[in-house]
Write a structure and sequence with these properties.
Layout: H1 6-18, E1 25-26, H2 27-34, H3 40-52, E2 56-61, E3 66-71, H4 73-86, E4 92-99, E5 103-110, E6 113-120, H5 134-139, H6 145-164, E7 173-177, E8 180-184, E9 187-188, E10 191-192, H7 204-220, E11 223-224, E12 233-236, E13 239-242, E14 249-250, H8 256-275, H9 281-291
Antiparallel strand pairs: 1-3, 2-3, 4-5, 5-6, 6-8, 7-8, 9-10, 11-14, 12-13
Helix pairs in contact: 1-4, 7-8, 8-9
The structure holds adenosine-5'-triphosphate and magnesium ion.
């Protein structure tokens, strides 16, 4: 992440607005909007800077004999960052915590407390079905839908779910801005707690029972995780915390039962492989299904 001045932000915001009308914004259109306030040479310098850090992309159009500009996903991330700081949600971003398959994560500080800023990214597979839906048909003409709208929806869903699970062992959420999510950091000194997969449990049987009890709590709140595994559970100060909820669904969702079964299979599979603990999957799934 790089520091931006308010002029660069203004340019990015203008490009974001123009995205509704253009996939690639003609430079002339952008300059016309901004030249009311700034000199062209000043704007050119700012555009160079934004391009250098890959927050915007240029392309020459022979047809219209001018450059076309487009905000990149990194540019969008910086707009979220700007709003997080402006809104007083964080003081600053500290370091990159990880690159998930579907997101970039950064640690951040607010009043000496650690936060995690998670930027959702487009990732095809789980959202294939969306393309068949009426909702998709209605907005598919919008420019680069997949890069912008899907990550935003994933962030919205994760935010909604984490709010619904408030008080349980999940991250506390503070804000959702565009495709970005701000939550508390589970861990110490800005470092995330280890994942279950990285920890050698002393009492694996107890841990498994706790996970199953927690899972029941989630069901009681009407929610199925949908991607539960040893990689999405963090072990911190003897407790287990459940992260990574963008794909979670309500128990009324037609896919709920299938996802529940897969979650349980993943967890039991892990404890069997790693600790040789054998528990009948069918029995547990059946018990949970009764509660749905
Ligand atoms: N609230 C949090 N506190 C501490 N660490 C976190 C938090 N959220 C995420 N992390 C860290 O970042 C990693 C990736 O986060 P998450 O699983 O939410 O994203 P993802 O893009 O779905 O990743 P993946 O596809 O690899 O599962 C986690 O495994 C964990 O190490
Ligand atoms: Mg994950």
């Amino acid at each position: 992440m790089i520091g931006l001045d308010s002029y660069c932000v203004e340019i990015l915001e203008a490009l974001e607005r123009l995205r509704m009308r253009y996939l690639w914004v003609p430079e002339g259109v952008l300059l016309k909007i901004l030249q009311k306030r700034y000199k062209e040479s000043f704007l050119a310098k700012k555009l160079d800077f934004l391009e250098k850090y890959e927050l915007i992309k240029f392309r020459y159009s022979r047809q219209s004999n001018q450059y076309m500009i487009r905000i990149t996903s990194k540019g969008f991330d910086h707009l979220v960052l700007w709003e997080l700081i402006k809104g007083g949600y964080i003081d600053r971003i500290c370091s990159e915590v990880g690159t998930g398959k579907e997101s970039f994560l950064y640690s951040a500080i607010k009043n000496n407390e650690w936060r995690i800023a998670k930027f959702h990214r487009f990732y095809g597979a789980p959202f294939k079905d969306i393309k068949k839906s009426a909702a998709f048909a209605a907005i598919s003409r919008e420019v680069h839908y997949e890069e912008v709208e899907i990550p935003r929806r994933r962030a919205e869903n994760e935010y909604r779910i984490l709010n619904a699970l408030k008080g349980l062992n999940v991250p506390k959420v503070y804000a959702r801005i565009k495709h970005g999510l701000l939550m508390n950091l589970i861990g110490k000194d800005g470092l995330p707690a280890p994942e279950l997969s990285e920890v050698d449990l002393k009492n694996p049987k107890d841990a498994l029972n706790i996970i199953l009890e927690d899972y029941r709590e989630f069901i009681n709140r009407g929610i199925i995780h949908g991607d539960l595994s040893e990689f999405n559970i963090l072990v911190y100060e003897g407790d287990l915390y459940y992260i990574d909820w963008p794909q979670a669904v309500s128990i009324e969702n037609p896919a709920a039962k299938e996802l529940l079964e897969r979650d349980i299979r993943n967890i039991l599979g892990y404890f069997k492989r790693e600790y040789d603990i054998k528990v009948s999957e069918g029995e547990i799934v059946e018990k949970f299904l009764k509660e749905i």
